[in-house]
Design goal:
Layout lengths: L10 E4 L3 E9 L2 E7 L9 H16 L17
Antiparallel strand pairs: 1-2, 2-3
Length: 77
């Protein structure tokens, strides 16, 4: 893991098109600003973990299809 020190209003660059700015430091909380293209998804870790868990559960589940009753006693067309 790369560890960087930054002060308020300083940035780090990730690749050519993502920057992370330190907006505010208050006690043990740091506010960050992320500037990234719209196609780059940015999540808090706990939200990302919840999304991954939900995707995994959906992939492992067995789909349930309702029984289809086509009516054995249909009239001919």
């Amino acid at each position: 893991m790369l560890i960087l020190s930054r002060k308020v209003n300083e940035k780090i660059m990730i690749g050519d098109n993502v920057s992370v700015s330190v907006i505010e430091v208050r006690g043990d909380q740091v506010r960050l600003g992320v500037d990234a293209p719209r196609d780059v998804k940015v999540f808090r870790q706990e939200v990302f973990d919840a999304i991954m868990a939900e995707n995994k559960a959906a992939a492992e589940s067995t789909p349930v299809f309702p029984e289809m009753d086509f009516g054995a006693e249909r009239e001919p067309l």
